[in-house]
Amino acid sequence: MSPLFKLTFAAGAAVLALGAQAQAFPAPGKTFTLIVPFSAGGPTDKVARDLAEALRKPLGGATIVIDNAAGAGSTIGTAKAFRAPPDGYTLLVTHVGMATTPALYRKLPYVVDEFEFAGLINEVPMVVVGKPTLEANNFKELTAWIAQNKGKVNMANAGLGSASHLCGLMLQQALKTEMTTVPYKGTAPAMTDLMGGQVDFMCDQTTNTTSQVEGKKIKAYAVSTPKRLTQPAVYKDLPTLDEAGLKGFNVSIWHGLYAPKGTPAAVVKTLNDALKVALKDPDFIKKEEGLGAIVVNDARANSAEHKKFVQAEVAKWGPVIKAAGQYAD
After folding, report:
1. Which of 4, 81, 145, 267 could be disulfide-bonded to 92 (CB atoms 3.0-4.6 Å)?
2. In its keyword annotation, does this UniProt entry include Cell wall biogenesis/degradation (predicted)?
3. Phi/psi of residue 301, each to 5°?
């Protein structure tokens, strides 16, 4: 066998091996893991579990398990996903924290741009809600009440980097006022104290507020999106914050799917194709709409556009967080 033939044969074998590797994904019987960098039962966990159900069929009936790796404002679980084998079987489902942690943390154990972006999943509107005994009955009355009680108003959030923390920062800047922020270790204790009247109000995801608003355990004042919400029905009469006088106010909490750096392009494409099928699943859409979430049906479901969107969000949130001077160690 001539040296040239040997070289050509070796190169051809390598190409065939790479092709076989790509075609073999997903391997029959192989289990997928979705890392969620938040506690079980929270909004991101709910999204991930709904998504896992919708992804099973387009991934060949694969078993998909959830790994809740919570802590340090989502950075522990995100770092775990970043260090995972880049074979496509360990993925990350996380929210807007992917874009805000670079400003919130001086040092991160991962680089956001080095993840492989598999596609945006949904957007979750935010709602300004108050304790049930709050005197204000609409947003105009709420802003007047805040002005009258300057220095006495308490605004809850679920902790540094949480959706409620980020929305609260934007709200304070838009209202041009400072309030006493009360951080909690998660949404559940914050909501419990809001319902009990220990704190005055908060701005949180519809995934966290809907059942309490429907049960009249808290008051709802306005939504954070440019357009009014039609679902769930309990929000259909609420004005947007833009309509209520905070022109241009637009905050939503989005979720995306990511793979570790170095995951083969063919594998990322397979994951993206599966995600786009899942995003059209009627059961998935119904579950998300029931939580007030809007399933993505535009170009951001594609890998490249997802990455561009996250980069734009990094640029959007960085100045807001820096202006507030709120950092983690």
Report:
1. 81
2. no
3. -75, -15
Nearest to 301 by CA among 253, 231, 252, 254: 254
Backbone phi, psi, residue 294, to 5°: -110, 115
User: What distance in Å separates the CA atoms of residue 255 and residue 158, rounded to the nearest whole number?
Assistant: 17
Residue 16 lies in a domain: yes
Look at the chain and report how many structural domains it folds into: 2
Please tell me whether residues 180 and 265 are part of one structural domain.
Answer: no
**Entry pTM:** 0.82
Domain span at residue 162 reads 125-235
Q: Tell me, yes or no, whether 114 and 137 share the same domain.
A: no
Asked, for residue 241, whether it belongs to a domain, the answer is: no
Q: Are residues 117 and 154 in the same domain?
A: no
CA dist 248 and 267 (Å) reads: 39
Residue ranges in the chain assigned as alpha helix (H) = 3-23, 43-56, 75-82, 97-104, 139-148, 163-175, 187-196, 206-214, 265-278, 282-290, 303-324
Across the 329 residues of the chain, what is the mean pLDDT of every consecutive 10-residue run? 45 42 78 94 90 97 96 93 98 95 92 97 95 95 93 90 88 89 89 96 91 95 90 90 91 95 97 98 93 92 97 92 69
Asked if residue 72 and residue 166 are part of one domain, the reply reads: no
Give the DSSP letter of residue 107: S
Sign of CA dihedral 177, 182, 184, 189: negative
State whether 114 and 150 are in the same domain.
Answer: no
What whole-number distance in Å separates Cα of residue 28 and Cα of residue 5? 35
Considering the domain architecture, whether residues 18 and 103 belong to the same structural domain is answered as: yes
User: How many separate helices (H) and strands (E) can be counted in the chain?
Assistant: 11, 10
